[in-house]
Amino acid sequence: MYPFGKGMARYVPLLLLLIPFALYVVFYFGPSVLTVIYSFTDVKNIPGSPVKFVGLDNYYDVFFSGNSGERWRSITNTLIFMVVVTIVQNGAALFIAVLINQRLRGDNFYRAVFFMPVVLGVSVVSLIWGMMFDPLSGPVNMLYEWLFGYKDMFFASFTHAFGYIIFVQIWMYMGYSMLIFLSGLQSVPKDLYEAGYIDGTTKWQSFRHITFPLIASSFTVNMLLSIIGAMSTFDIILATTDGRFNTRTMAYDVYKETFRGSLEMGLPSALSVVQFLMILVFVVVAVKQMRKREVEY
Amino acid sequence: MVKRISAVVLASALTLSLAACGSNNGGNTATEGNTGSKPSGEKKVVKILHWKQGNVNAAMEEINKAFEAKYPEYKVEYTTTGPDDEYKQAQRARITANDVDVLADLSGMRLSPKDWTPGAKVPDWQQWIDSGLIADLSDQEFVKNWNANDIEKAGTYNDKVYAIPTGKVAMSGLFYNKQIFEDNGLKVPTTWTEFLKLCEDLKAKGITPIGVAGKDVWPLKLPVFALQAKILGGGDQQKWIEGVWKGETAFNDAEAVEVLDKMKTLQDNYMIDGFMGIDYASAPSIFATGKVAMLADGSWDAPTIATANPDLKFGYFPVPATEDAAKNASFVGKYDVTWYAAEKGPNKEGALKWLEFFSESENYTKYVKAAGFIPTQDNIATDSEFIDKELTPYLGDFELAYEIMMINRQNVGEHIAAEGVHTEYLAPGGEFKTAKELADVQQKEWEAAAPK
Predict the structure, then answer these.
(1) Contact status of A262 with chain B (Cβ, < 8 Å)
(2) How confident is the model at residue A2 (pLDDT cuts 50, 70, 90)?
(3) What is the tally of helices (H) and strands (E) in chain A?
(4) Quick one: DSSP state of residue B389?
């Protein structure tokens, strides 16, 4: 009847809710709002130092100052990173998930193998690929030389380093997307395939018209995770090239300006606001598009 | 059964990955000794913050122990973090939280804006002093233990002493393998022409002349420091730097282009193949195993090289930047570890006591020997053959390096950022075919960063 009791007792659940709400406001929402406010000030990382509003100066510095060329390149890099990672990572993950879902012998083993890089973590992964891609004695360069008679500088190449970082990022997180697709695939009712089989569908047709529409929700989740993940990635860049060799992205710039730049926090705040707005636009568009496609039979 | 096992594997994998997310933000601060949470009786804790550097840390621990033995009322809490950016992060956090008494900074006081640098960025240390976070040491007796000139150059701001520079390092030299030089009848070059001739001779014998850790990029700055100090402003860097602010000199004037061009000559012809792929940690072993005849590195790496191959006989000479042998014969370098005492720390009095103890010549000698620095106190016997025979002859006109003297404009482009001229952007690795092309871009970036 009264699951939460009567009288004042009714307010207890609300009071309890206040605790996580307060934590959320203090540690998450508050700082986020403060970042937006800071982006219009010249606030410094020194307690008690005077703060004044400087209007759009920080945004002007982001887009039109002496080194804005590099900021624009960071933005382009972020977009390239996001598009390539989202498409390739999800494409490959879907392909492998479908393969593994066919009750292969040892499918659990494959699952674990593909998921392994996620477990290793960024530091270990960048160490592994740093050794694989060692320009002087790495195995990949030996392979290149044997196959094409060509040697690469990998993470120390102005033209190729970013491509290799994208590759490592995809290698690392593909297993994660795969797992989400796999759970989606396993929730597709088997009788639909049987019905399709009776109607004489080819393998491609049954994938296109049965599997794909029914895993649309996993698809949405994966797309969102990759878009947000890719646009806020800085750790793999930090660990492989440290932003050298034209590999900076917006998220890396925010980290760098905040923790290694000057004591001024206005510029990095402005950078994060710009980054946030970009992510927001892409996520909203993506969600709108994909929601349209989700179906239930 | 198999399914259950793999479920467990996957679950633990997920948990681990979450744990990994939490742990790789680089802030792992190792605390040695007492962590403060433990009650230390009546003892007053002195908190010292420093970065990790094996040999120096060991000497510090010893000094701290001796300090605690002599003054039993104090307890030293010596904390070290990873070097460079990780340290900078810790340093900022601790000083602003008033949670440190003595803190180390790299390179002495530098890059303070002058009246000829309108709009230049104020460095961290100066902002801390201006905000009253750093203790004034001017009246402390122990300051007199230190070389007055070094204190003046690297520890004084607004006529007050705020910092103790604990040693100098040479940066503009090349380590050379004495065995290789002897076997091939070569001697240390004193002019640029002799230097190129030496490199050619080595090449003709099938020996790679120079190794450098290009992957970390900053080691490429080291030979450039020699070129800059001896060539810019006709050997007066300060004049050139002031000139560039006033529009009298430029990043693409003849002298600046000569600097880039000479470095390009070395990079194109005499540096080890794929030097842009060598990371700093592995460079000493490449030299120590005789793969290259010379190594572009700072004098602080001598102990590392000696450890990598104890039998190796090696020396260190300044890169001969010009045709004037007398002008070439001195090192360019900087101050290394520099101590500040926090004004608002938990134990300022303890910090001063510790600095006083550290400044006593026998304690300092222990430290400077372990660190391999050139002493900033007078009459210190380092008993180091390397310092006495290889460095001292070239210390007469010791000059500070470009990165210590150059005051940058805010928001300068990447080709002149971080007080460097970034020769990694030159071909073959980079996009610029000639030194002049890079120089023109640098001048453009400098002008674009002019305050509006």
Answers:
(1) yes
(2) low
(3) 15, 0
(4) I
Which residues in chain A have Cβ-Cβ distances shorter than 8 Å to B127?
Answer: 44, 46, 49, 263
Residues of A in contact with B15 (CB under 8 A): none
Q: Using a pLDDT cut of 90, give the percent of chain B over it.
A: 76
**Residue B28 confidence class, pLDDT cut points 50, 70, 90:** very low
pTM score of the predicted model: 0.86
CATH of the domain at B93: 3.40.190.10
Q: How high is the ipTM of this complex?
A: 0.83
The whole-angstrom distance between A201's CA and the closest CA on chain B is: 31
Identity at A162, one-letter amino acid code: F
Q: How far is CA B167 from CA B63, B164, B188, B351, in A?
A: 16, 9, 26, 19
Residue B161 sits in the same domain as residue B202: no
Q: Which of A45, A66, A135 minimises the CB distance to B96?
A: A45
Helices (H), B309-434: 325-328, 348-359, 361-371, 385, 402-405
Query: Does one domain contain both B383 and B241?
Result: no
Q: Is A117 helix (H, G, I), strand (E, B) or coil?
A: helix
The partner residues of B46 in beta bridges, in order of sequence, read: B76
pLDDT tier at B37 (50, 70, 90 boundaries)? very low
What is the tens place of the pLDDT at every residue in A67-107?
Answer: 888 999 999 999 999 999 999 999 999 999 998 888 778 88
Q: How far is B231 from chain A (nearest CA, A)?
A: 27
Chain A interface includes B1 (CB < 8 A): no
Beta-carbon contacts below 8 Å between A and B: 108
For residue range B303-319, list pLDDT tens digits in order. Answer: 889 989 999 999 999 99
Does the CB of B431 have a partner CB in chain A at under 8 Å? yes
Domain extent at residue B217: 172-330+408-448
Instruction: Judge if B60 and B203 occupy the same domain.
Output: no
